[in-house]
Amino acid sequence: MDATPFDTTSARGTGGRLPGSGRAQFGQGSASALSMRWSALHDAAQAVAALADIEPERMTAQVRNFPAVMRDAGGWRREAAEQGIDDISAMLEPGLAALLAVHARGADTGAPAMALWKEFLAARDALIALAPPKGAHGMYRRA
Where is the composition biased (Polar residues) (predicted)? Predict the structure, then answer.
């Protein structure tokens, strides 16, 4: 068996990501707890969207790159982002558990799931607003 490591940055044009994945890239030390929690939050939100019988929105670069931007920003912005992710999780986890219990009984989850979905979007968008303004050449400035 060849011991050559697999090169995830080959010329296949995927930039180190699996085709079609909407998750934050986990290269060069960015596999932080913040990135993983952000990804898990969006996985749970997709389940809520499914229970609301809606198509979840496609993950934009701004949303996907949020953990890396906040990690690079550091300071109060990173602390606020971490707390915000914890807060959204604290709202989403029991809400999703309740929706799954209702769904298991065969009841309609559309309206409560839609309400939870809208709460998730509002909270997530408020977190994204914490990102520092873009500086020259598209790079983020430290606050």
Answer: 1-12
